[in-house]
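quick one
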Amino acid sequence: MLQLDDVSVRYGTEVALDRVGLHLPDGQVLAVLGPSGCGKSTLLRAVAGLEPLTTGSLSFDGADLRRVPTHRRGFALMFQDGQLFASKSVAQNIGYPLRLRRRAKAATTARVEELLDLVGLGGYGARRPETLSGGERQRVALARALAVEPRLLLLDEPLSALDAALRERLALDLRRIITASGTTTLMVTHDHEEAFAIADRMALMRDGRVVQEGEPAQVWANPVDAETALFLGYDRVLEGVAARTVLGAAGLAGEGPVALRRSALEVAADGPLEAVVRSSRAAPEVVRLVVEIPSVGEIAAVATTSEVAPGPGLKVRLRVVGDRLAVIGKNATAGLVP
Ligand code: ADP
Ligand code: MG
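structure w/ magnesium ion:
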């Protein structure tokens, strides 16, 4: 179990990590999610022992890590770009950490085969990295990181270099592989979908601080503030009378602020809200609208394509889809569906 208390890292006067506390139980996957520059890589480097702590404490299974050098920590670190050896085969890349530790040849070969199967690349051992797709290369890098059975796997934006479609698929593969190997994992990323796909728990970071921590569904349903909600992919945050209008239409009491996904308002003949369509645009599964609602203003809405797409100027009625909004703040009640 990894434990960080009050960990700060400064570069000169710049505070990269500001009193960070984190707790990662054995076998779990914790994703630290935050925008570029918020201190994610610094956090991983500090845990790996590549960056000295300015203050705070860091322990694994109760043992203080601060004087344990990187190579003695038993952790593995994997980066965005995999960093494979171009001149070595896939099998040589995966077996490299084992050869470094002078494991017997037969044991190394067997372990490499096992890892190739684990990451779904059975039969790829003789290939060179340049003959692989980006996703395959990242799976090789993951196999290499897992080769010596690290007690903690550290992943720095492992999927960020891949294109969107591949990223989504590999995120699920990554979760399956990590879970199958039972490896305790700390991942950092700026991509909320990646974090949601992979993690058991999430910590949101901003300006070197952890601003929220919890299970992904719980974080999603109850962002701690507006900035967090927008970072998590909510489209708008409403306050005051606009928030009350939407919450009321959803059958919810409360003052807001309330965060809405782009699809939180949906055209429905018996919906409680009246609106005028300002613009409409067909998307693959829905028609995306901008509508004007009295006391809310202009806001995104959707119509399902089975209906006739309402054009500009048309009056429509809207319903609020309860699980596509989140009431913001500490005391908010989360995930209410009327
Ligand atoms: P992230 O990985 O979230 O993008 P980083 O941990 O790389 O963020 O950086 C956090 C902050 O610390 C940034 O403001 C960055 O400019 C600064 N920083 C990172 N590494 C160094 C360094 N070696 N020297 C000075 N400043 C650094
Ligand atoms: Mg980084």
